């Protein structure tokens, strides 16, 4: 509490408008240019510079070739203000976020097949204009919702079979089906019955430890179970293991379609008992009015629409 009071005391003794003056002068490097941008006279800008030097107890700017140059402390202040000033402006404005000028890092948890569908769209169409924003995609795990509760994640992408805590909000991004992948020489028909499917040996992909997969949950709803001889945590591991074997792997349809040109594999239609599912984005309700998080949800929503077209 004492540290908080001390910081507030420093703020009360400072003119925050001077921080804007500092940022402008650091960009323009001349009194004339900074004064013009700030709609001040040159004497007023010079007085503001003197007040800045008194406030930070440093020269901050030194005359040199081509105009003013920042001192080491001035460089440190400039780096801090590049982050702080946009945040303060958003705090006062309350309802806007400019990804071209405001720095932000978003952490999103999900499964590799969701990322393989959405990330290409983000990279090609939506993110390049967001020059100050970075994304960190991490593997979903049993503690993903807890991590979001603690503010360590911004979004979780999951399938509609997961139990979402009631204080979170969700939205459908796109619908997905499944296909079955087998070796090219496999004699199974292109359209599988449930019996044919269950008679096969399977490589199952369990991304979240011992939790049943969405395929296993669909089968369980019909009172049956497939024979999973091998369990792996990654889809691509499973797919690379199928060629030249009698194994089958069941994968999201969009991923399977991308393998149609692979001459070592065949894509089969699954039995109708394997229902389509939905991908959701999930977030904490406390972020509903946050401008940066609204922007994040908007671009993820657009990516979902793009892959649905």
Outline the structure in words:
The chain is α/β, with parallel strands linked by helices. It folds into three domains: 2-93, Arc Repressor Mutant, subunit A; 104-166 and 281-308, D-Maltodextrin-Binding Protein, domain 2 (3-Layer(aba) Sandwich); 178-275, D-Maltodextrin-Binding Protein, domain 2, CATH 3.40.190. It is built from twelve helices and twelve strands. The chain has helices at 2-12, 17-28, 31-38, 42-56, 72-93, 112-126, 144-149, 194-199, 214-220, 235-240, 253-257, 291-308, and strands at residues 61-64, 67-70, 104-110, 133-139, 155-159, 168-176, 178-183, 201-205, 227-232, 247-252, 265-268, 277-284. Helix 6 links the parallel strand 3 and strand 4. Helix 6 (112-126) crosses helix 12. The chain is elongated, with a radius of gyration of 28 Å. Mean pLDDT is 86; it is low at 1-6.
CATH second-level architecture of the largest domain: 3-Layer(aba) Sandwich
Q: What Rg is obtained from the alpha carbons, in whole angstroms?
A: 28 Å
Number of structural domains: 3
CATH topology of the largest domain: D-Maltodextrin-Binding Protein, domain 2
Strand content: 15-25%
CATH homologous superfamily grouping of the largest domain: Periplasmic binding protein-like II
Q: Fraction of residues in helices? A: 40-55%
Strand order of the largest sheet: 4-3-5-12-6
CATH C-level label of the largest domain: Alpha Beta
Overall form: elongated
Per DSSP E runs of 2 or more residues, the count of β-strands stands at: 12
Q: Show unreliable segments.
A: 1-6
Look at the helices and sheets and give the structural class: alpha/beta
Number of helices: 12
Q: Distance between the terminal alpha carbons, to the nearest Å? A: 54 Å
Largest sheet: 5 strands, mixed
Mean pLDDT: 86
SSE ordering: HHHHEEHEHEHEEEHEHEHEHEEH
């Amino acid at each position: 509490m004492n540290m908080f009071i001390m910081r507030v005391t420093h703020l009360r003794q400072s003119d925050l408008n001077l921080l804007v003056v500092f940022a402008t002068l650091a960009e323009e490097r001349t009194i004339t240019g900074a004064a013009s941008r700030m709609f001040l006279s040159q004497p007023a800008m010079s007085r503001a510079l003197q007040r800045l030097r008194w406030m930070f107890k440093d020269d901050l700017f030194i005359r040199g070739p081509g105009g003013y140059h920042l001192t080491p402390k001035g460089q440190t202040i400039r780096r801090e203000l590049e982050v702080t000033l946009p945040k303060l402006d958003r705090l006062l404005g309350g309802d806007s976020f400019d990804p071209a000028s405001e720095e932000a890092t978003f952490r999103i948890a999900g499964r590799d097949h969701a990322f393989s569908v959405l990330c290409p769209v983000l990279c090609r169409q939506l993110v390049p204009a967001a020059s100050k924003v970075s994304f960190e995609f991490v593997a979903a795990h049993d503690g993903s919702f807890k991590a979001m509760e603690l503010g360590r994640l911004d979004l979780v992408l999951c399938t509609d079979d997961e139990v979402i805590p009631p204080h979170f909000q969700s939205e459908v991004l796109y619908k997905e089906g499944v296909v079955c992948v087998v070796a090219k020489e496999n004699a199974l028909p292109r359209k599988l019955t449930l019996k044919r499917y269950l008679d096969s040996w399977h490589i199952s992909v369990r991304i979240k430890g011992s939790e049943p997969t969405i395929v296993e949950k669909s089968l369980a709803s019909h009172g049956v179970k497939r024979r999973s001889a091998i369990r792996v945590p990654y889809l691509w591991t499973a797919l690379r293991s199928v060629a030249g074997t009698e194994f089958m792997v069941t994968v999201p349809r969009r991923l399977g379609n991308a393998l149609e040109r692979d001459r070592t594999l065949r894509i089969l239609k699954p039995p109708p008992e394997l229902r389509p599912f939905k991908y959701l984005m999930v977030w904490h309700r406390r972020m509903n009015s946050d401008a940066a998080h609204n922007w994040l949800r908007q671009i993820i929503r657009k990516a979902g629409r793009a892959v649905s077209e």
